[in-house]
Amino acid sequence: MADQSSLQSIAQWLVGIEETAGQVYRGAASCLRANRDLSEFLDRLASDESWHYHAMVSALDFMAHKDIPLPADVLLDAQTKAHVEDPFRRMQQLLEEGELTEELFLESFLKTEFSEWNTLFLYVVNTLKEFKVEFQYSASEMQHHLVEIEEFLRQLPGGERHLRDMLSVPK
Question: Is the CB of residue 82 less than 8 Å from the CB of residue 49?
């Protein structure tokens, strides 16, 4: 069954996803610390996710205090939510069981970072940037986040193939 989404409900869901991502990436950085480059990259991403979390909290606060019609032009349904949340659940489970490997992490990581998740973040901040300049920076920061991921993947053995596969998936 479809979930009719408001911009507020999308932002609220994103708050939870950004928080989860930060926790998972920080845990993975610690678990995979034998690969220093990957661990440092994941620590940076965890910091990015913390920043994204605060940007969405700010978006929710802004929407709660402004009388601006903000209908959502997209639908956030259960299938989309699962597409983003399931890889995080898998990473969390592997972390808890002490079975997270670089390969298993990258498999789930790619599924989340190249899913609708970041597109929805951009949708929210791009909608709000017309009303408050703070969200222009948030949109720019997200673009930088995505470029950083792509650049890191290009340097990994087999990373170009993973990147090509992920970028070819329709949003």
Answer: no
Q: Which amino acid is at 139?
A: A
Angle at 170 between CA 119 and CA 142, to 5 degrees: 25
List C-alpha distances in Å: 28 to 44, 89, 130, 141: 12, 13, 36, 23
Q: How far is CA 145 from the centre of its chain?
A: 9
Q: How far apart are CA 95 and CA 75, in angstroms?
A: 31
Q: Are 154 and 160 in contact (CB under 8 A)?
A: yes
Computed on alpha carbons and rounded to an integer, the radius of gyration of the chain in Å comes to: 16
Can you give the pLDDT at residue 86? 96
Q: What's the whole-number mean pLDDT along residues 78-105?
A: 94
Identify the top-confidence range among 55-64, 69-78, 123-132: 55-64
- Amino acid sitting at position 125: V
Rounded to whole angstroms, the Cα distance separating 128 from 120 reads 12
What tokens were used for 23? 């926790």
